[in-house]
Amino acid sequence: MGDNFNRRILIIDDNRLIHEDFRKILTIAPASVGYGKLSAELFGDEVEKCRFAGFELDFACQGQEGLEKVQHAVAVDRPYGVAFVDVRMPPGWDGIETTARLWEISPELQVVICTAYSDYDWSDIARKLGHTDHVLILKKPFDTIEVLQMAETLARKWTLARQARLRLADLDAVIKQRTEELRQSQKLEALGQLAGGVAHDFNNLLTVIRGNADLTRRHLQGCSEEVAGWLEEICAASDRAANLTRQLLAFSRKQIMQPRPLDLDRVILNLSKMLKRIIGENIDLKCRYDPALPMVQADISMLEQALVNLVVNARDAMPGGGQLLITTEKLTFPEASAPAHPEARPGDFVCITVKDTGSGIAPEHLPHIFEPFFTTKDVGKGTGLGLATVYGIVKQHEGWIEVSSQVGCGSTFRLFLQALPSLQPEEAKEKADANEMPRGKETILLVEDDEAVRKVTRIILERSGYNVLEAGSGPAALQAWETAAAKVDLLLTDVIMPEGITGRELAERLRAQKASLKVIYQSGYSAEIIGTDGEFLSRTKSFLLQKPCLSQDLLRTVRRCLDGLGADCAQVPLGLEASPASC
Q1: CATH number 3.40.225.10 given to 8-142
Q2: Cα–Cα distance, 240 to 133 (Å, whole number)
Q3: What's the CATH fold of domain 259-422?
Q4: In this structure, CATH architecture of domain 174-253+433-583
Q5: How far apart are CA 311 and CA 117, in angstroms?
Q6: Which runs of E-coded beta strand occur in 19-164?
Q7: What is the tens place of the pLDDT at every residue in 390-428?
């Protein structure tokens, strides 16, 4: 046998001559070839590998003394695997009581009860001990081979039972960890659902506020500077509120990808105030921008979520404070990429770098940091989803991530996204005309269950020359359609509405009757329109306006939709009008 089993044995017998018998049997290698063959047959070893290693023996003359030795062995983490216990040991405990007390301290201990008499039958032993899966009976006088077989077998049994228990404990710990991860994931999902519901109602209110402010500002052109200032404050406050809602959604929900040309310098600038609140005052946040940074085709909410996750990860790596640097730059990769950029492909790219001075990442953890639920944080401190989400977002944008880190020196994450070509003259003109108020004479079926939102939207459209038919629900829209289908050019509908018909279902019904019908969806929560169907908007050539939107964005989207132009510039979210500056 090898030395992989617990060979510590305790002999408890009031007869010291018995102690010597056990010593002779269990500490001297037997010369019997027959024992080696028998051992090989029992345990599946080859005969030539059956090298007997002597047992380590301790002795006690009474049960109380044996209990003390077991207690000490457990305390120093050198437990006994087997105990041979005499059944009669006057004047103290007998072997059955001794065994019961030993199991209170060492439940895995394998016990051999040695007896020359029939003091107890098996049913008595089972009744007194409660179980017999750790007990064998050895009749005196005992045979040498029989003692060796019991010692070897029970030593193996104790070791295998201990290994099984430890593996079960590890499995139980993994199950508890995964259960907690699932619970945290469900909490995030619930938070996202809550945020979506709040955002839907809140964005309806902001639509009314901003829409009426825009109407008032247009109506009072040439008003006093003081009144114009008040209106400007109302518009600015509604823009900030819209940004807060949008950032909450970006942090807490999955959404369909809605790429549009983005200036990442402006995105980071507008996000920087929230980032400073997230990291606290003990971390110094600095941002450095590339003044010639090209635009990228990306979903603003998803990129904001990726940045927030990276910043939160950096914050957690700097509990005592530190420095956090976010930079942008343009990089061009030739045909043959350098080894430092194994995922690079030829072309121009925008690189976002997030660098901290935190604790760093251990080399053995680096290959796993983007795996879902992988985390080195304490229980309850993280879900293991943050970096996995960043990885998924960047990959969805056909980019890649590079990470470098050194324990004690911090970490650097670099996100690479394909750069867009420079704006063409036509595109530049379109951008310059973005603030104009397009007009038209077409007929629009406006479907919105919130009366205040419906009213302000109708007024904006009518003041720009459009004919507007109103409906407060899907069934009401179907009723209006029956008499006006021929003249309706555009359906402008909310997504989630009462009375059992959603905006998407309504559009599908109406388009089945009139394939040329143009459709614009309005929503405070974009995921509610398309669900998991990421190509729905492009496939149906529909537009999506996220509430709240500026009046000019609404009118420009309506005009583009009616004119059959692309939907990629349908709406620039509020709050992107600032110029890049230092954070």
Answers
A1: no
A2: 71
A3: Heat Shock Protein 90 (3.30.565)
A4: 3-Layer(aba) Sandwich (3.40)
A5: 76
A6: 56-60, 82-86, 110-115, 135-139
A7: 888 888 888 999 999 999 899 999 999 999 987 543 444
